[in-house]
Amino acid sequence: MTFQATPEKGRFITFEGGEGVGKSTQLARLAEHLRDCGFEVVMTREPGGTPKAEKLRAFLLSGRAAPLGPLAEAALFSAARADHVETLIAPALKRGAWVLCDRFADSTRAYQGARGGVDAKTLALLERAAVGDTRPDLTIMLDLPAQEGLTRAASRRHGEEVDRFESEAPAFHDELRQAFLDIAESEPERCCVIDAAMTIDDVARAVQRLVHDRFLAHAAQAAQ
Ligand SMILES: Nc1ncnc2c1ncn2[C@@H]1O[C@H](COP(=O)(O)OP(=O)(O)O)[C@@H](O)[C@H]1O
Ligand SMILES: Cc1cn([C@H]2C[C@H](O)[C@@H](COP(=O)(O)OP(=O)(O)O)O2)c(=O)[nH]c1=O
């Protein structure tokens, strides 16, 4: 599938799901495809994406924030997100780029909310403060049994230490998977679940098809 770039507004696509489901792999594949179509693509990730947010990432993933509790962690993820949105994501969208982001606010809802017990009202306030109107146009939820994702993540790690959340018990990761599915069910117009147990190529094709149907099909028709 190839398309001609049209001078459309930027699109904001997030990839969500548990550990090792293939988010970064698929984000890179979609970026390559969109660039081949002539679009400017910004690849980024959370926590992180800007120098300040990367500093918070190092602190959060080292586990040093864990003793402060899930509410403090949610506030720190949100602080990183506020800087990321303001200095990288919103300006890129404004100039017409496609922004592909590995994890975003749904990860806070799932990890610090569903799993950490921070209430939904508090998280919604933090989300509004950090994100404002820069909400994803599409969220791709990659779904995989938690144990398979952890096995994939372990093979990618090549002996490096596990981070703050990968080291949680298997039940934590099963509940996370369900939390992402629940978010997708509650916002079907934004979220789409893709079976991440398929081969890398098959998942990449499913992602491309989804993005095409959602954003590019009408542009291609209009150009004819
Ligand atoms: N569909 C797939 N089938 C098998 N292995 C995969 C698949 N997608 C990704 N992987 C591998 O699994 C590991 C984790 O993938 P990655 O994209 O880093 O996941 P995430 O970003 O969700 O943590 C990597 O070694 C990657 O090559
Ligand atoms: C963005 C975000 C991430 N996280 C967690 C999820 C991951 O365990 C970790 C980010 O690590 P990362 O290595 O980027 O994710 P993955 O293991 O999927 O490749 O931070 C939260 O707990 N809350 C958040 O808001």
From TrEMBL:
What enzyme class is recorded for this protein? transferase
Q: Which reaction does it catalyse?
A: dTMP + ATP = dTDP + ADP
Span-the-membrane segments of this chain are none
* Classification via SUPFAM superfamilies: P-loop containing nucleoside triphosphate hydrolases
Give start and end of each Thymidylate kinase-like domain.
Answer: 15-206
**Binding residue positions for ATP:** G17, G18, E19, G20, V21, G22, K23, S24
One BP term from GO:
dUDP biosynthetic process
Please list the GO terms describing molecular function: ATP binding; dTMP kinase activity
Q: Which Gene3D superfamilies match?
A: P-loop containing nucleotide triphosphate hydrolases (3.40.50.300)
- The EC code for this enzyme is 2.7.4.9
**Which keywords label this protein?**
ATP-binding, Kinase, Nucleotide biosynthesis, Nucleotide-binding, Transferase
Job description of the protein: Phosphorylation of dTMP to form dTDP in both de novo and salvage pathways of dTTP synthesis.
Name of the protein in question: Thymidylate kinase
- The organism named in the record is Methylocystis hirsuta
Q: Which gene encodes it?
A: tmk
